[in-house]
Amino acid sequence: MSEEPQKTKSSARQRADLIKPFRCKNLIAVIEDPKDIVNIGTVIRNVNAMGVEKVYVVDPRNALSDDWEELREKRKLSKISVSSIKWTFVKRFDSTEDCFAHLEKNNFVSVVTSPHVKGKESAYLHEIDFTKHAKLAVWFGCEARGISSLAVERSKMCVSIPMFGMIESLNLGTSSGIVLYEVTKQRREYQSLYRKRGKGSKRETPLPTVIERGEDEA
Ligand SMILES: C[S@@+](CC[C@H](N)C(=O)[O-])C[C@H]1O[C@@H](n2cnc3c(N)ncnc32)[C@H](O)[C@@H]1O
């Protein structure tokens, strides 16, 4: 049984209207060659919960369908993502190259994530300004190999979550939650202050950056 109660059509519509202004525009999470369906479902759930606009999946083994409707109906994915796949835009690509070609054509700047120092520039999560680029794609690597060298080469920088334990890395689903929390927090604050890019478009009154507690329970 699903872990969350199903929303009726009208309560789902109300919720969709309530969350709309909080969604981070032009922010995409990319998962590169994930092997485990549980991790894919967890990333989709995190993306939905944090208000990220889209998920791209680099899927060279063709584990997912190209068809959006079919993907949404995939029972295991729907269950793991607690149905958030129904409300989240997911697109698959055959290769890392294809995904970069699509992102670059649409003027997205990419950053990769890794527990290790990689590429031209590397920094800890809390040191980075994630509002610098109007269109941002955040890449997460595969469970065993991590992020590919092609993705590192084509990205602006590498982001790491500081770690203090004996293990080498965090799980893919967990790290996506931590990174996307910080990225969306910063970008929501920016959207709250500015109407569009450029400091000239400052709002007279900042928009709220969180949904008032209890507002969605009325
Ligand atoms: C299980 S880890 C991969 C471990 C792999 N041995 C490696 O060298 O990256 C799966 C993905 O989670 C993300 N990740 C895990 N730990 C992270 C950390 N401390 N900082 C940033 N990203 C991390 C990265 O995207 C990574 O590719």
Number of domain units:
1
CATH topology category name: Alpha/beta knot
Strand order, sheet with most strands = 3-2-1-6-4-7-5
What is the fourth-level CATH superfamily?
SPOUT methyltransferase, trefoil knot domain
> Structural class, from helix and strand content?
alpha/beta
Mean pLDDT: 90
Largest sheet: 7 strands, parallel
Architecture in CATH? Answer: 3-Layer(aba) Sandwich
Low-confidence parts, pLDDT < 50 over ≥5 residues? none
Q: Which CATH first-tier class would you pick? A: Alpha Beta
Describe it:
There is one protein chain. With 218 residues, the chain is an alpha/beta fold. The chain has a single domain, classed as SPOUT methyltransferase, trefoil knot domain (Alpha/beta knot). Helices cover 34% and strands 17% of the residues. It is built from 7 helices and 7 strands, in the order αβαβααβαβββαβα. It has a 7-stranded parallel beta sheet, sandwiched between helices. The longest helix has 22 residues. The relative contact order is 0.17. The model has no long low-confidence stretch (mean pLDDT 90). The chain binds S-adenosylmethionine.
